[in-house]
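Need residues for this backbone.
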């Protein structure tokens, strides 16, 4: 049996409500042990994200081979995302500047403006949310980490663009990043 409830749209700065499905067919003991383990991982992720002032981090970046993301959104909310799946994305992509803690350089990366994401939260409730703008960029960057892609494989530095004969979006390489993940 699946129970549905509506989440307040202001949590993620959304324009509309989201639905949350709570799977109730899993045995309570199994569910509780998984939730406890996810929260242990989330604690470790939060500790590192806080120490290095990161907007996001994945379990894989700590050597934990699970599809778990911790996101610190611009509006101050924090979300644990387990087993994310991109359900829908805008066909039009825009190039913006990103930086990853794994690399010193900033990269121009093309990403869609909006995505619809399905995932489980830290209480194993299934959620479906439409993210926009910077949140989309952050989520997709972190999903790249889950899929073993580095920012250097999906983006271009200013030097890469110059070598290709293109004019970089920004000229000053000391310009600050859009976010750090």
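Answer:
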């Amino acid at each position: 049996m699946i129970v549905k409830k509506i989440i307040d749209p202001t949590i993620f700065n959304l324009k509309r409500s989201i639905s949350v499905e709570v799977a109730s067919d899993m045995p309570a003991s199994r569910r509780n042990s998984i939730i406890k383990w996810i929260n242990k991982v989330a604690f470790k992720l939060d500790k590192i994200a806080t120490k290095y002032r990161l907007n996001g981090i994945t379990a894989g970046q700590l050597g934990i081979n699970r599809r778990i993301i911790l996101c610190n959104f611009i509006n101050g909310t924090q979300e644990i995302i387990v087993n994310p799946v991109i359900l829908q994305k805008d066909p039009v992509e825009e190039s913006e500047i990103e930086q990853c803690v794994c690399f010193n350089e900033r990269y121009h990366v093309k990403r869609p403006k909006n995505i619809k994401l399905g995932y489980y939260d830290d209480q194993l409730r299934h959620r479906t949310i439409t993210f926009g703008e910077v949140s989309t960029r952050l989520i997709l960057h972190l999903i790249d980490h889950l899929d073993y892609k580095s920012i250097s494989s999906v983006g271009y530095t200013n030097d890469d663009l110059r070598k290709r004969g293109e004019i970089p979006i920004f000229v000053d390489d000391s310009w600050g990043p859009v976010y750090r993940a």
